Amino acid sequence: MLVLVAPGQGAQTPGFLTPWLKLPGVADRLAAWSEVAGIDLIACGTTAGADEIRDTAIAQPLLVAAALASAEVLGATPDVLAGHSVGEFATAALAGVLTPEQALDLVSERGQAMAKAAAITETGMTAVLGGVEADVLAALDEHGLTPANINGAGQIVAGGTVEQLAALKADPPARARLIPLSVAGAFHTVHMIPAVEQLREAARRAEPADPKVTLLSNADGAAVTDGAEVMRRLVDQVSNPVRWDACMATMAELGVTRMIELLPGGTLTGLARRGLRGVETVALKTPADLDAARELMK
Predict the structure, then answer these.
(1) Quick one: average pLDDT of 82-97?
(2) Could you confirm whether 85 is annotated as catalytic?
(3) Which of these is catalytic: 85, 108, 217, 239?
(4) Residue of 84, 108, 143, 188 marked catalytic
């Protein structure tokens, strides 16, 4: 059983799209999607610097476009789809809930709304690796932080104000390692509530269809079969934690044996190697990874 997964914000790196533009049709597709997203996706994925693509309003449509373009090149027919955070918009399109153009229109609105919300208060996110989960969650609660991403495999991402994150750094949970993330705000926390209504209003433009493939939700790992419910969850997820641990648990229950992570891959396959033992994985980082991915699809 094959699952395709799409990564979330923070997976982007300067120039990551450059080698993909040499493949037939990719540049034309990205140019067309640039018109929908309102940004030059090709420039953002090739010549833009790290600070520019860290901007939420740029990073989110860039990541969704990259995932969709790599899926199109790959040509896979998955049994299951799951996206992490903004990656859910890519997998919703791949499942047929939205068209690629609808997904990019909405994710562009999402990125702008979240960027505005992030500007209200100086916030950020820190990955907490290792430690006992109960102790980590207790430490976050003590400092007023939110477990914004519960990723499984011993990784929880804390979101909150810079002062709260500094307090956590000064008093970390036992046996845990802290890594500040290169993101522009505390996503999937109460700090994003101002963005929810803007996205909800934009979502009225879409006419979602029911998923054609088993589609897992970040909210609780459940497979959602109703298109309207997928949309409701996509909107609400902006200010709610991502339960990737629950998504991986559902993958295990479904009997997933193979995982391909769409461009720019690496993060989710890394989690799977620790949290889904025995599942074969391939991450699409460059076109050189396509052969291994296609071999895994056989």
Answers:
(1) 98
(2) yes
(3) 85
(4) 188
